[in-house]
Amino acid sequence: MLNIKLQYSWDSFHADYRVNIPSGVTTLLGGSGEGKSTLLHLLGGFLDGHGELDFNSESLLRLAPYERPISTLFQSDNLFPQLTVWQNVAIGVSPSLSLSTEQKDKVNWALEKTQLVDKAGRFPQALSGGQAQRVAIARILVRNKPILLLDEPFSALDPALREEMLYLVKEVTEELSLTTLLVSHLPQEVSLIGGKVILIEKGNIVAHEPVSVLDQTPAHSLFSDYFGIPNSSLMIK
Ligand SMILES: Nc1ncnc2c1ncn2[C@@H]1O[C@H](COP(=O)(O)OP(=O)(O)OP(=O)(O)O)[C@@H](O)[C@H]1O
């Protein structure tokens, strides 16, 4: 369980996030500028918040980003162009790229999981957008951290690839019992990935519900206001 009671201020933006997040996927919804990325940056330790942040009863607040049990995949994540796919994943285990046999097995396992075995020797410039994102996910898998933060990492991909990536995130979250937080804007994506959904407004968590809430009729008023689809079911069947 990830227990969050975090306050943060930035000019006129005052956030106060309070929520307990179980393992599984939780999607963060909210309009532009409402504070989704700020929450992920606070969790990752890239911004300094006040309050409490515990994961399975261990406080994370005073840990540096690299000490936290967290992997992140943000919009701007890039691969190292001078390293092969295999090396781009291996660097997640050891920055010096000197790996034990066990660590090499782990890299190979992650490449299998992300269906990149045949691309292991390629350089990033020879990959499609979807393949490059799979490399970034493989690197996250070898890091072996129990919390995964994804800030719209697939927004540049076409709908079919985005769906493929979401299935992969769902699958690895279930298999490895991760606590995954994903920022998204699309109700279809939320329903596809399942789990729970959080609505953020003005730096506050105003709703925290199972994804099925989007399918209820009449629609949940806060979510229907957010999606701009009043008095109807939010799911696109
Ligand atoms: N570098 C910055 N300096 C000052 N204020 C900032 C900065 N970055 C973000 N903010 C403010 O913090 C608030 C929350 O921003 P945040 O990026 O968390 O929103 P978001 O919900 O992720 O939005 P989006 O969906 O557009 O990415 C906004 O009011 C924004 O203007």
TrEMBL record:
Q: Where do the ABC transporter domain residues begin and end?
A: 1-227
**Among its keywords, does the record have DNA-binding?**
no
InterPro entries reported in the protein's UniProt record: AAA+_ATPase, ABC_SmlMolc_Importer, ABC_transporter-like_ATP-bd, ABC_transporter-like_CS, P-loop_NTPase
Annotated GO MF terms: ATP binding; ATP hydrolysis activity
**Signal peptide region:** none
Q: Which Pfam families match?
A: ABC_tran (PF00005)
Q: Which domain of life is it from?
A: Bacteria
Keywords attached to this entry: ATP-binding, Cell inner membrane, Cell membrane, Membrane, Nucleotide-binding, Translocase, Transport
What name appears for this protein in its UniProt entry? Thiamine ABC transporter ATPase
